Amino acid sequence: MLEDEFGREVSGVRVSLTDRCNFDCVYCHNEGLGDTRGPMDPQDDELSTDTVVRFLEVAREYGVEAVKFTGGEPMLRDDLEEIVRRAPDDMAVSMTTNGTFLPGRAEALVDAGLERVNVSQDALDADAFAELTQSGAYERVLEGVEAALDAGLAPVKLNMVVFEPTAGYVPGMVDHVAANDGLQLQLIEYMPELAGHPEWAIDIQRVHDWLEDRADHVETREMHDRKRYFVSSDAETAEAAQTAATDGGVRAGDGLGMVEIVDPVGNAEFCANCHRVRLAHDGYLKGCLNRNDDLVAIGETKAAMRDAFEKTVAERVPYYGEYLVEDDEGGWTMNEAYLDSKGDRTPYEYADE
């Protein structure tokens, strides 16, 4: 397994199969729907089926243990099942989706080897959902979640971006996962550096504090030092959770929901524990989600992909703590020493040998 100069092993990859999406979420940094007529062949600017599979085989050579397929909306690719099926047998495969295409495809994806799924759901009210996503697909998303559960993908993790327009919906979403076995909730801190609108950002610590009071039990994951909040649906379950905590056996399900917060903004510890690189839909590797000045083209051959992967890992640095450094006022500013050492950065192209 390769590691960068900060000792961070790269154990996972995120692969964006397309930047097309049938939603137009107000917080999304892509800003563009593209051709969304339904699942179709890879478009001209998207990685082919064979190229994606070839890259996964190379990543596995370097000890990468897991891949998460993302987009845009990855299910707009009609070769998704084939890609999942052809992924290395010992590589864990998951996906993030808006859920609208899960009905009718979830079972086939599980048969192909999909193990976990995250479904984006920012509200429990159809009108609020439509306003946030610019779509009328609320009922279809709910059907998608049920299809995933029926196909054996429990627990289904619901992704909710937390910012001013959604902050008021957090308690309802927490109650929702507490009352529905098979669901978990991932609250994702809004990142204005990617999407703009800094006025939409909220103090994520307020959400942590609220959950600390709401939860019946709190655990801390070693990776990212991330907390897990276990919440009950009723007093009887809460009492059972306290007993289980004493015995060291708390788990989600049976009326006990699990909530996590992903809070990368200004979080040097989060970046110091990042173990993923990202492959964009157009064939460029990124060492950091937040950057577009570290792009390396993977090419078409395995030899080129190996070179690209090694270069990307060797040059990746923590976004907070190295690419950005903390100033005297507690804010974050560009690390001029790092920028000067790199000079003018342009996407690195590998010849298709």
The general outline is globular
Q: What integer value in Å does the Rg equal?
A: 20 Å
Q: How many beta strands in the DSSP annotation?
A: 14
Gap from first CA to last CA? 25 Å
In short:
31% of the residues lie in helices and 19% in strands. By secondary structure, it is an alpha/beta fold.
Descriptive report:
By secondary structure, the chain is an alpha/beta fold. Among the domains are: 155-265, no CATH class; 276-342, no CATH class. It has twelve helices and 14 strands. The chain has helices at 49-61, 80-86, 106-112, 126-133, 138-150, 170-179, 192-195, 204-214, 235-246, 268-272, 302-315, 336-342, and strands at 12-16, 66-70, 92-97, 116-120, 156-162, 183-189, 217-220, 227-232, 256-262, 276-279, 284-286, 296-297, 324-326, 332-334. The strands form two sheets. A twelve-stranded mixed β-sheet has the order 7-8-9-6-5-4-3-2-1-10-11-12. Strands 13-14 form a two-stranded antiparallel ribbon. Helix 1 (49-61) crosses helix 11 and helix 2 (80-86) packs parallel to helix 3 (106-112). The chain is globular, with a radius of gyration of 20 Å. The two termini are 25 Å apart.
Layout of secondary structure:
Blueprint: E1 12-16, H1 49-61, E2 66-70, H2 80-86, E3 92-97, H3 106-112, E4 116-120, H4 126-133, H5 138-150, E5 156-162, H6 170-179, E6 183-189, H7 192-195, H8 204-214, E7 217-220, E8 227-232, H9 235-246, E9 256-262, H10 268-272, E10 276-279, E11 284-286, E12 296-297, H11 302-315, E13 324-326, E14 332-334, H12 336-342
Parallel strand pairs: 1-2, 1-10, 2-3, 3-4, 4-5, 5-6, 6-9
Antiparallel strand pairs: 7-8, 8-9, 10-11, 11-12, 13-14
